[in-house]
């Protein structure tokens, strides 16, 4: 018996396979295995961010170095000369710049990554890929600026005749912690910024406050010993103190460093989990 046109259409519709693309349920696979599978896209997103940042600028990457150098000069006059802050026998310009190298990276990458999803709304709503690639690529792009600043830091260390210490071998550990901290905080804020645009308004003030409560231009030893554990609850405290200790051969503050490691890993975990939980709704709010 011949089927009607409506019956044939119903049978054809029923035989079609509907494929729904969505993130995997396991957050660990989402944040690591998927990122590795799309590593080429991560590279091109980071390269695009670098090219856009310096496009049509006369000084190019030199702007990256001017900010910490000028800030170092201001801090040296205000806190080194006028306030007379003691820096454990480290020349104040060198002390300040070593902290500004990491802080500038944190400040820039968190600013860029927190706004990255909103700025790439057209990309997110059109094709499928792990959305975490976008804030992570903003952090990866900042590594170019970090490397340039490190070269300047080495030059300043040579100028002040700082010798080589075996503890310098630990410096990459604190650089890695800085990158992971930026990814954790940046991914967390980027997911919140999609739904709550207040994040963009509050972020500059929050980062400015974070700088002043971090030992960027003053040492942890400035605080009474009984209160140092409170300052160490800031994840940047142990990173900055450990980075300087590794560069200048000073004793490590084990408690501050250990606390920063725990907090950095925790923030990385929280950022990945919150990002995954909110990812399915990104397109609705963008």
**Proportion of residues in extended strands:** under 5%
Question: Gap between N and C termini, in Å?
Answer: 51 Å
Structural class per helix/strand content? mainly alpha
| Overall radius of gyration | 23 Å
Kindly give the count of domains.
1
Number of helices: 14
Helix content class: over 70%
Largest sheet: none
Average pLDDT, to the nearest integer? 84
Descriptive report:
This protein has 286 residues and is an all-alpha fold. The chain has one domain (25-285). Helices cover 71% and strands 0% of the residues. It is built from 14 helices and no strands. The radius of gyration is 23 Å and the shape is globular. The N and C termini lie far apart (51 Å). The model has no long low-confidence stretch (mean pLDDT 84).
Pick out its properties:
286 residues; mainly alpha; 14 helices; 71% helix
């Amino acid at each position: 018996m011949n089927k009607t046109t409506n019956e044939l259409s119903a049978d054809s519709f029923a035989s079609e396979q509907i494929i729904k693309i969505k993130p995997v349920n396991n957050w660990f696979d989402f944040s690591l295995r998927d990122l590795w599978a799309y590593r080429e896209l991560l590279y091109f997103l980071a390269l695009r961010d670098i090219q856009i940042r310096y496009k049509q600028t006369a000084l190019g990457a030199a702007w990256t170095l001017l900010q910490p150098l000028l800030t170092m000069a201001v801090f040296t006059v205000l806190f080194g000369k006028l306030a007379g802050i003691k820096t454990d026998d480290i020349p104040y310009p060198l002390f300040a710049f070593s902290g500004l190298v990491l802080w500038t990276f944190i400040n820039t990458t968190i600013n860029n990554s927190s706004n990255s999803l909103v700025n790439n709304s057209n990309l997110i709503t059109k094709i499928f890929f792990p959305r975490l690639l976008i804030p992570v690529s903003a952090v990866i792009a900042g590594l170019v600026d970090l490397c340039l600043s490190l070269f300047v830091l080495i030059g300043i260390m040579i100028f002040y005749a700082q010798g080589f210490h075996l503890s310098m071998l630990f410096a990459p550990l604190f650089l890695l912690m800085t990158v992971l901290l930026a990814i954790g905080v940046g991914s967390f804020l980027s997911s919140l910024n999609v739904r709550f645009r207040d994040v963009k308004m509050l972020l500059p003030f929050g980062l400015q406050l974070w700088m002043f409560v971090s030992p960027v231009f003053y040492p942890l030893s400035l605080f009474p010993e009984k209160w140092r554990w409170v300052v160490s609850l800031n994840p940047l405290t142990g990173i900055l103190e450990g980075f300087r200790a590794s560069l200048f051969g000073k004793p490590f503050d084990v408690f501050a460093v250990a606390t920063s490691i725990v907090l950095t890993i925790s923030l990385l975990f929280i950022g990945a989990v919150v990002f995954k939980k909110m990812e399915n709704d990104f397109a609705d709010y963008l």
